[in-house]
Amino acid sequence: MARLIDELIGKAKKSPKRVALPECDNADTLLAARRVADDGIGTPVLVSPKDTIDATAAEAGVSLEGMEIVDTADDAAAEELADRYMAAGRERLISRKAARRKIKNPLYYAMMLEELGDVDCTFCGHTNTTGDVLMAAQMIIGLADGVDVPSILALVQTPGFEGPEGDVIALADCGLNPEPTPEELASIAIAASDNVASLMGWEPRCAFISYSTDGSGESPSVERIRQAIAIAKDRRPDLAFDGEFQLDAAIVPATAAKKVKRESAVAGRANVLVFPDLNCANTAVKLIQLFAHGKGYGHNLSGFRCPVADSSRGSSVEEMVGDIAMLVLSAR
Fold first, then answer.
1. Coil, strand or helix at 301
2. What pLDDT, in 10s, does the model give residues 185-238?
3. Which residue of 57, 77, 250, 331 is 20 to 30 Å from 241, comparing CA positions?
4. Mean pLDDT of all residues in the chain?
């Protein structure tokens, strides 16, 4: 089984991007940046006070050659950035004074650079909490059209699985929304579909997973899924959404033929699975990992206007490099 992460890194090298890294007080961040630069995945843009970057590079034994440095301690540059951000033509959630105050934090500085197109994506979360990353991204970048909440997409590779896209399938939401409303569930499906198209080049076919297939069961949870499907189809008629489907009806053509008594572009061929809540999605990923020895990849936050990664604080340098490759592929 070829490693999915190697495939993603190979694809990222063909279209490298400028990656903002605001957590430069952490040695692993600079070690990952060095790998990203050396492997041609992208151009690391280190966003922190220059003396912090220099000190961390010395500690880690990392050369900064081939990387760019944005010194967040440069007051004149920060003033100019805040002015550009406020004048960029989109309604802002903060005042200019607040913007100037916020970009004293490298996390906010990096996201302003991304919002203005100075960088293509932002990799963070290795030292900042998920809450910190979400707050900064929602305030500075904002959510994509048709999306109400951010979510996390997992790409799962399972030995022996023969699905619509080989041994890889996408699952959502695997990390953020415990009990999504119909509108939020529709948002998760839209964001996951768009993310999969960017990352994998697939034509997304998104199934809403349930214990029920096409009305075989009735409950408030099933009704919530049906409402979400209708909302998703209304918001994005260009994407393929269907359900509610049991897991086998979503990905096994023979089962879909028995259980789904109508035409469907998704049944039996789904490559994106949207679970009804976080209990189901989290358990599904762990079942695959523990029992089927599958691998799950992805700390990309789906749903923002520009790509942001919320890295795990326990990630190794190798895992960080893989996450940055996925982030690069998400950037347009």
1. strand
2. 999 999 999 999 999 999 999 999 999 999 999 999 999 999 999 999 999 999
3. 331
4. 95
Mean pLDDT, residues 259-285 taken together: 96
Strands annotated E in 146-212:
151-152, 154-157, 168-172, 205-209
The alpha helices in the chain, defined as continuous H runs, are: 4-13, 27-39, 50-60, 75-86, 96-102, 106-115, 130-140, 182-200, 220-235, 247-251, 253-259, 278-291, 317-330
Locate 100 and state its tokens. 């100037």
Question: Which residue type does 211 have?
Answer: Y
How many CA atoms does the CB half-sphere of 201 hold within 13 Å? 4
- Classified as helix, coil or strand, 299 is coil
57 Cβ contact partners less than 8 Å away, ≥ 6 residues apart:
30, 63, 64
Residue 181, both tokens:
């409303």
pLDDT of residue 1: 56
The SS3 of residue 177 is coil
In single-letter form, the type of residue at position 231 comes to: I
Backbone torsion region of residue 231, taken as left when φ is above 0, otherwise alpha when ψ lies between -120 and 50, otherwise beta: alpha
pTM of the model: 0.91
Q: What is the model's pLDDT at position 204?
A: 98
